[in-house]
Amino acid sequence: MALPKLEVASYTTTLPITKKKVTYRPFLVKEQKILLIALESEDSEQASSSMLELMKNCVLNLDKVGLLEKLPTTDIEHLFIQVRIKSVGETVDVGIPCDNCEEVAEISVDLTEAKVEGEVPNPKIELVNDIGMTLSYPTMLSVQNQTPDDKDQTEQIFNLIYESVVNVYQGDAVYTKDDMERNELEEFLDQFTTEQFQKVQDYFTNMPQYSKTINFDCPKCETKNEKKLVGIMDFFG
């Protein structure tokens, strides 16, 4: 005997960075299990991959949205939160340690109150005179291409720059990523002063991200705490 097929509702949302309109459905129980296992593993790479695969299953107009891997990370975070709200509910329990005694408090966070904060910075990084470089917004693909062994923050920035560089220019001469080898870009970056390299770092660190400020009293020592959740892993990691 064939059991009936259950109909699933569909919803739409507009991505905050690319402004693309996405039609999506809630994720199913079998998909939720896979995602929970990935999040509980505390492996950010596995969690990102599982989240991306889940989004591919849930987006109903991929032909118009395009490759999710090439969407800005903030767009993916927004989409995931919208799908999660329609699938499980508007709140999530987050364990937050106290600043004073480190007791972990379980706080119920309203996901509808989480907002994208910050403006997309100017992608053109002026270095000196008529020399500069243009960067693209980090995508899920550029984040996934980070080498797992690169624990040093500087190395991570170097890799992210390589994945995100659009071109290097000098006056009217423009050198695209296809024009340069990895070692050539590294040699170019090695010439930077601390101030010039800081400009590049600021481009990435000032990117808009999902965030929400949480205020709570520690259940153990009663210290008043203020914590800012930033990025998807702070909410679900």
Shape call = globular
Strand-residue fraction? 25-35%
Mean of residue pLDDT values: 87
Q: Report the strand count.
A: 11
Could you give the order of the helices and strands?
EEHHHHEEEEEHHEEHHEEH
Strand count, sense and closure of the main sheet? 4 strands, antiparallel
Can you tag this structure with a few keywords?
237 residues, alpha+beta, rbstp2171, 3 domains, four-stranded antiparallel beta sheet, three-stranded antiparallel beta sheet, 9 helices, 38% helix
List the helices and strands and how they pair.
Blueprint: E1 11-14, E2 21-24, H1 29-40, H2 44-58, H3 62-65, H4 73-87, E3 91-97, E4 104-110, E5 115-117, E6 124-128, E7 131-135, H5 140-144, H6 153-164, E8 165-170, E9 173-176, H7 182-190, H8 194-205, E10 209-217, E11 224-230, H9 232-236
Antiparallel strand pairs: 1-2, 3-4, 5-10, 6-7, 7-8, 8-9, 10-11
Your description of this structure?
It is a single chain. The chain is of the alpha+beta class and 237 residues long. The protein has 3 domains: 9-89, rbstp2171 (2-Layer Sandwich), CATH 3.30.2220; 93-109 and 210-237, no CATH class; 124-205, no CATH class. Helices cover 38% and strands 26% of the residues. Strands 6-7-8-9 form a 4-stranded antiparallel sheet. Strands 5-10-11 form a 3-stranded antiparallel sheet. The N and C termini lie far apart (41 Å).
Give a nutshell description of this structure.
By secondary structure, the chain is α+β, with helices and mostly antiparallel strands. Helix content is 38%, strand content 26%.
